[in-house]
Amino acid sequence: MKRVTGIGGIFFQAKDPVALRAWYQKHLGIDVQVWGGAAFTWQGSETTIWSIGESGGDHFAPSTAPFMINYRVDDLSALLQALREEGCQVLDKTDDSEYGKFGWVVDPEGNKVELWQPPAGQ
Length: 122
Known about the structure:
Blueprint: E1 4-14, H1 17-28, E2 37-42, E3 46-54, E4 67-73, H2 76-85, E5 89-90, E6 95-97, E7 100-106, E8 112-117
């Protein structure tokens, strides 16, 4: 079974996300959108999301890290099952939305890792 096929997104928190977004836009030329991030398109159809959010909250919980990486996968359900069988800390919650299917695993350092199966055709 193929596991990770690419990076779907990089999300991190900042004390002052508005100022940090402006810095990235001004100095690195990232086209930051009103929703707080940018979408990079590769090879015509693959997209990687980059986003800065407000510090705090529990979006990255149970991790205390100020970042989370989202990895693209082909078969979320099969991968989550394999990770469980391998003794990994897989979070019970999954999400199925118009943006695709999402699941989470926590790595040995306590970082929450997001796994994303894009909708069919993407």
